[in-house]
Amino acid sequence: MKHRIVVLGAGYAGAFSAGYLARQLHSDDFEITVVNAEPDFVERLRLHQLAAGQDLRHRPLEQVFAGTGIRLRPARVTDVDAGHRTVTVADGEGIDRLEYDTLLYALGSTAADHGVPGVREHAFHVAARPSALRLRARLDELGEDGRVLVVGGNLTAIEAATEIAESRAGLRVGLATSGELGGWLGPKARRHLLRAFDRFGITVHEHTTIARVEEAVAVAADGTAFASDATVWAAGFAVHPIAAASGLEVEPNGQITVDRQMRSVSHPDVYVAGDSAFVIGENGRPLPMSCASAGSTSMQATAAIIGDRTGRKISTTALSYVGNHISLGRKDGIFQLVDGDARSKSWALRGRTAARVKSAILETAAWSLSHPTFGRPSHKYRLATARERSLDVVAA
Ligand SMILES: Cc1cc2nc3c(=O)[nH]c(=O)nc-3n(C[C@H](O)[C@H](O)[C@H](O)COP(=O)(O)OP(=O)(O)OC[C@H]3O[C@@H](n4cnc5c(N)ncnc54)[C@H](O)[C@@H]3O)c2cc1C
Hints:
Helices cover about 30% and strands about 25% of the residues. By secondary structure, it is of the alpha/beta class. The longest helix has 20 residues, at about 290-310.
């Protein structure tokens, strides 16, 4: 019987990892199944664009995985039982249970509502394609007349507010944040950001914590009510509750606790990559949820899976956080670099060049999914016997 590798999620982390494993492991020994809620690879980094009304390139996973032998299972994961090595999935035909020998958990994250009443019922978000499309439909309804309030002061809030303001010039866009807008940026980047918000006519309410969301209003902790025809909740991401319910050891924020090789600390046959993983980076701090982290954690997780299953030496990938690229509509952006303590450097790339760099990074990230070895040769590593693997561990 073949060794069954099941990959949950085909976003940046899962799609890259599955493609890479399929190119390195012998298909006589390994069977790789990918479960994903959508039949397409969704460029999550562009979902604010989709919400604002732009159409994204269609990227069917069948094409991304063409010729790899990967079995694609478009279905929703509803449960993981790490103790019994099973995954429950649901699709239009019903419920099914998959068994695995090795699991790669890469289900990403969703919008964090922080328990604020009314967010689930009344707010919109851009953390997944269905929710971005729901917001887009609402903005279409509003047409040229309406108020949009974006809640949050970090990357996604900034990108969502500026994209909507640029694409839907008739709408009155505001942003409410409990702290300062882009307060973590270096001085040059922050000045650039504030000028861009000014240019787009976005009203900024700093030090404003939204404590309740209703159908046409968002209410701050001090009782101030903001009329809003569409409240966009962009106040951070949280891992799907599936992880905490799986029996895997998780952090208080729901991320799965892993070792340096991206193995679950409680269930070493489960590996984790992308937003779902809690891992300490090279700077001694938790690696932030980001596309770059999805890339480095995937490389580390796949190296560990190949090493653990074939007896090969596991190479180390640097888990580094170097900065953030932020779009401000389609023609402007900021690329803020950070130092070894994750503090913003004083200089940042700004303006049209930063927008072009971001666009190139996004294209490369999407391209890498169907070219995960970046042109380096593929291999056909065989499954080592349990004895060979344990001898290898002893030798190491
Ligand atoms: C609007 C927006 C803009 C962003 N911009 C940036 C940016 O500029 N730079 C940056 O570094 N990061 C950015 N991010 C964050 C970045 O998108 C994530 O950190 C990255 O996508 C994480 O990769 P992942 O593979 O862990 O998760 P994802 O890319 O989200 O992939 C998870 C996959 O799992 C699938 N899935 C989820 N739940 C289930 C389920 N129950 N069953 C089956 N399938 C499921 C999803 O459909 C998806 O395909 C942005 C995020 C958003 C929402």
